[in-house]
């Protein structure tokens, strides 16, 4: 029996016909990378291929690597296997990876969301025979409200904190979430200060997106200057000596996990805003339907529950183990930048 077009191996998702891996978690010779988050783009591969908007991101994060960039929909062949990258809508430069060989088409979604956030290239459904989907929020309890409403709430929270002469500290991943927050913060309320990890990544992306002005927090920053303004920081800064210098402050976190009150308590934040760069339950179902795929492979997240539901709906669905972490990835990973500045 011939090998499937894509196999799940100890190193990652492997296309044996092309001898290339998709988002491998162990060092390999040839890797096609869906996006820049740490669980999908790892150090140690000999050759990286990704969307051209992701090239500066992974180069910044991984250092001196051998990487080439592709355009949306650009077909490139490796050992007669056709590959192309298509918008995933997850973060800037995030891709779905389409693989075609001998009339068979697979799509690896990576991480994706269907809501247009205004900074990432919007998600594009791709028809295929087999669709590999994340399930980060694959439960009916997850149902996002439009981001416009979320940002209205965030800016109102900031304004109220300013009236009480407190500094607002808003936590979001240094890549993706932080830039999404930054884009829609109301600078009429006050100034936006940033942690070094967010400032550095945002500067990498400024040639691509027009972001509001930010001020990097340094050792010379006077905490009195922060009062009434807002600070964007990665989750890793929570509870650090860096943040304790900003008293009095109020903390907020933007994440899909804020759907559950318990998550806010566990993370010891004052305010939770439900804002995710992944699909909610309906977004996952809608996306899968639009692919017209016959087979669905469910990976990271609520994969067992979600795949069982898909089978009940008549899909040929199963699960596969990966080392992807979805929205937990950057909570569990600290970079060299996540230090006091």
UniProtKB/TrEMBL annotation:
Molecular function in Gene Ontology: ligase activity; RNA endonuclease activity
Organism: Maribacter hydrothermalis
SUPFAM superfamilies on file: Metallo-hydrolase/oxidoreductase
The keyword Ligase belongs to this UniProt entry's keyword annotation: yes
This protein's name: DNA ligase-associated DEXH box helicase
Annotated Gene3D superfamilies: Ribonuclease Z/Hydroxyacylglutathione hydrolase-like (3.60.15.10)
Keywords annotated in UniProt: Ligase
